[in-house]
């Protein structure tokens, strides 16, 4: 059966029926086995996050603005008469402003992924799921989609009321307008995404002329559908069940990591303000007035007062909500705040919390991350925009030609990764009297690859019988500093 399993259960006559989703026994008639439907998961409860203002909400919107400015804006920036950021898979070239990367430059991609991984480890160890709460695409697009929903359907109460109402003209136009806005934004997101792989200034006219290729069409629709479904419909389900980060984040935390915490000692016993005012002398209520604002603003629908949970994405919406309530009832802020487990239990002050941030784990992560970044940037600075691969011609081994001259044939694959054309001369060293035919010059346009067959010759008697190590070199005529040398084997027939 779909979403359920038929499981034999035994119970006593007269027992109450089990609740949905539980593992309780069911009634059993004498002599017969009864079967209960056990649901494998609970039905989703719709979450209606309340809009909240505050310092962390402003920071979150700043991150939304910056990330989307970069995502939507980068494909439109030009650099050297081309798109500044373009991953041209067809020609196997990655353009990053003034940097042109080829498949042979995979090492830099690997280094970049290592930097991202160690950055995630470092930031998580310091401040928990700060990436999830502020810059994760799922969080960013969910925030944008919620903003659209609020502008069209109203605040939290209005949205809940609208969903409970029967269908009417007002409900129909509001729902239609919301989904049309969601779909338009998702479609533009898909186009922008594909614009990183196909030049966006060529992509838009092709869309207008219905001349789009099959792969571009597929990825635009796929990415638009993923954005629309994840941010519009699934929302917190992605963070709770699909994202692996929620599952292994605990391995990155320790008791000195900054996380969203509820000060249990200060907040309990919680009770409404009116009830707290009626308490007898000598009895004391906590600062929490049980307004549930922290639950109402949570995008994943958890109650932070029950302790840190893996569903918490660290967005600090509950901090803003609780601080606003504390301001209204004239109590100090910080009932819910960024803190650490050790700070809550031992009552550390803010300076003490900051001092404990510089612990061995953080220092090691920082040192490794700094070293990898330094090596990454250093290798880019000294990188030569010229690549040379030497391939022996297997059909022509070392042979003796006129006047006893020994000749070996090679194919040189020359890659000019610079965005300027150059003229190169070819030379060889390692054996006295080596000559190269042709020696050059050869011309390569910007970001061009060229296969050049060359003959390397040694005079009679030069070198030793068998294999000899030589170097084949390329030198730019217009830029002396631009040169590259590659090892090769020169074969001399046995005398």
TrEMBL record:
<keyword id="KW-0249">Electron transport</keyword>
<feature type="transmembrane region" description="Helical">
    <location>
        <begin position="106"/>
        <end position="127"/>
    </location>
</feature>
<dbReference type="InterPro" id="IPR051684">
    <property type="entry name" value="Electron_Trans/Redox"/>
</dbReference>
<dbReference type="Pfam" id="PF13746">
    <property type="entry name" value="Fer4_18"/>
</dbReference>
<dbReference type="GO" id="GO:0005886">
    <property type="term" value="C:plasma membrane"/>
</dbReference>
<dbReference type="InterPro" id="IPR032879">
    <property type="entry name" value="FixG_C"/>
</dbReference>
<feature type="transmembrane region" description="Helical">
    <location>
        <begin position="217"/>
        <end position="234"/>
    </location>
</feature>
<dbReference type="InterPro" id="IPR017900">
    <property type="entry name" value="4Fe4S_Fe_S_CS"/>
</dbReference>
<dbReference type="InterPro" id="IPR013783">
    <property type="entry name" value="Ig-like_fold"/>
</dbReference>
<dbReference type="Pfam" id="PF11614">
    <property type="entry name" value="FixG_C"/>
</dbReference>
<keyword id="KW-0479">Metal-binding</keyword>
<dbReference type="InterPro" id="IPR014116">
    <property type="entry name" value="Cyt_c_oxidase_cbb3_FixG"/>
</dbReference>
<feature type="transmembrane region" description="Helical">
    <location>
        <begin position="180"/>
        <end position="197"/>
    </location>
</feature>
<keyword id="KW-1133">Transmembrane helix</keyword>
<feature type="transmembrane region" description="Helical">
    <location>
        <begin position="59"/>
        <end position="77"/>
    </location>
</feature>
<keyword id="KW-0408">Iron</keyword>
<keyword id="KW-0004">4Fe-4S</keyword>
<feature type="domain" description="4Fe-4S ferredoxin-type">
    <location>
        <begin position="279"/>
        <end position="307"/>
    </location>
</feature>
<dbReference type="GO" id="GO:0051539">
    <property type="term" value="F:4 iron, 4 sulfur cluster binding"/>
</dbReference>
<protein>
    <submittedName>
        <fullName>Cytochrome c oxidase accessory protein CcoG</fullName>
    </submittedName>
</protein>
<dbReference type="InterPro" id="IPR017896">
    <property type="entry name" value="4Fe4S_Fe-S-bd"/>
</dbReference>
<keyword id="KW-0812">Transmembrane</keyword>
<keyword id="KW-0411">Iron-sulfur</keyword>
<dbReference type="GO" id="GO:0046872">
    <property type="term" value="F:metal ion binding"/>
</dbReference>
<dbReference type="Pfam" id="PF12801">
    <property type="entry name" value="Fer4_5"/>
</dbReference>
<keyword id="KW-0472">Membrane</keyword>
<feature type="region of interest" description="Disordered">
    <location>
        <begin position="1"/>
        <end position="30"/>
    </location>
</feature>
<feature type="transmembrane region" description="Helical">
    <location>
        <begin position="362"/>
        <end position="382"/>
    </location>
</feature>
<keyword id="KW-0813">Transport</keyword>
């Amino acid at each position: 059966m779909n979403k359920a399993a038929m499981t034999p259960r035994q119970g006593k006559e007269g027992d109450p029926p089990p609740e949905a989703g539980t593992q309780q026994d069911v009634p059993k008639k004498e002599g017969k086995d009864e079967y209960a439907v056990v649901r494998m998961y609970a039905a989703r409860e719709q979450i209606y996050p309340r809009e909240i203002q505050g310092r962390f909400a402003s920071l979150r919107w700043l991150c939304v603005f910056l990330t989307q400015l970069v995502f939507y804006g980068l494909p439109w920036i030009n650099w050297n008469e081309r798109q500044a950021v373009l991953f041209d898979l067809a020609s196997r070239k990655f353009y990053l402003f003034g940097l042109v990367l080829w498949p042979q430059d995979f090492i830099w991609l690997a280094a970049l992924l290592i930097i991202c991984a160690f950055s995630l480890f470092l930031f998580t160890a310091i401040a928990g799921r700060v990436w999830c709460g502020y810059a994760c695409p799922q969080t960013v697009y969910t925030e944008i989609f919620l903003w659209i929903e609020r502008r069209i359907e109203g605040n939290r109460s209005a949205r809940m009321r609208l969903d409970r109402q029967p269908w009417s003209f007002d409900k129909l136009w509001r729902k239609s307008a919301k989904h049309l806005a969601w779909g338009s934004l998702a479609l533009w997101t898909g186009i922008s995404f594909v614009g990183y792989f196909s030049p966006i200034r060529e992509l838009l006219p092709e869309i207008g002329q219905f001349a789009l290729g099959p792969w571009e069409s597929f990825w635009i629709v796929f990415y638009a559908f993923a954005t629309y479904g994840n941010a519009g419909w699934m929302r917190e389900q992605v963070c709770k069940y699909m994202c692996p980060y929620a599952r292994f984040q605990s391995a990155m935390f320790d008791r000195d990591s900054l996380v969203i915490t509820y000060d249990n000692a200060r907040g309990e016993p919680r009770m409404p303000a009116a009830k707290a005012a009626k308490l007898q002398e000598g009895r004391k209520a906590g600062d929490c007035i049980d307004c549930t604002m922290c639950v109402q603003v949570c995008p994943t629908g958890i109650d932070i007062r029950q302790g840190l949970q893996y569903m918490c994405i660290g967005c600090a919406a509950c901090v803003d909500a609780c601080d606003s309530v504390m301001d209204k009832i004239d109590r100090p802020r910080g009932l819910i705040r960024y803190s650490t487990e050790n700070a809550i239990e031992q009552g550390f002050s803010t300076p003490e919390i900051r001092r404990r941030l510089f612990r061995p784990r953080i220092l090691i992560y920082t040192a490794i991350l700094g070293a990898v970044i330094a090596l990454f940037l250093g290798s880019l600075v000294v990188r030569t925009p010229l690549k040379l691969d030497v391939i022996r011609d297997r059909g022509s081994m070392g042979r003796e030609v006129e006047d006893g001259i020994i000749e070996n044939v090679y194919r040189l694959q020359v890659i000019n990764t610079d965005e300027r054309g150059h003229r190169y001369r070819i030379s060889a060293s390692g054996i006295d009297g080596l000559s190269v035919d042709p020696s050059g010059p050869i011309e390569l346009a910007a970001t061009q690859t060229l296969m050049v067959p060359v003959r390397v010759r040694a005079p009679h008697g030069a070198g030793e019988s068998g294999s000899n190590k030589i170097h084949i070199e390329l030198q730019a005529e217009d830029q002396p500093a631009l040169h590259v040398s590659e090892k090769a084997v020169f074969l001399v027939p046995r005398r």
